[in-house]
Structures are given as structure tokens and as C-alpha cells.
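Standup notes
- DV: blocked on the single-chain target, sequence here:
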Amino acid sequence: MESSSDPTNLPSRSYRVHLCLGPNCGPRGARALLSQLEAAVARAGLSGRVDVLATTCRDRCDYGPSMNIYPGPFFYNNLTEEAIEEIVSEHLDQGRPVPRWFFRPKPIKLRH
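- DV (later): unblocked, structure below
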């Protein structure tokens, strides 16, 4: 009989989703998005395959709310209710990342 501490006996998860609730993302609606994300995952029947974790700052404060999805990682930013629904449906359920919500840093203006 295998030991219960054997990592191969742990339930497998397809994805880990880290949603930032840091000092910049939190006031931008991240807490409401966390509830929506958890509900959307459950509605899609993905609770056994997706771990949703609230995290601290993801260091993309100007682009929040933000989340990372692993494996990948995939970085999603400027999240909205629409983004959450689309990412759950496409990325987490169908395995198709959603480029329109990917992190894209703003161009840096250099002084001459």
C-alpha cells in the first residue's frame, strides 16, 4: 500500500490560478472578481481541476486587477467581469489561453 504522503496520491489539478488582492488590485475590484472567479469555476464544473488562490502583489500594479495561471505561466491583467468569464470558459475549460487579456506593459518613453 502506498503512503498517503506520496505526492502521486494527491488529487491532480489542471490549473492553479493566482488572483492578486494586493494594495492596488484590491481597490480596483479584485475581491469581487475573486468571488466571481470561484463561482464561474464551480458553474463550469471545474472545481476538481482548478485551484483558485488569492495572493499578494504580482508586481504589475499599474495593470490590475491581475492574475497568473499555471502551468504556463500566463499573465492576465486589467481584469473585468467579462474577462473572468471568458478566461474560465476558454482557458480553464477549453485549454485555450485568451490573448486579448494578456499582460502587455505600456511602452517606455525614453528621453533624449
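- Follow-up: The two ends are 69 Å apart (CA to CA).
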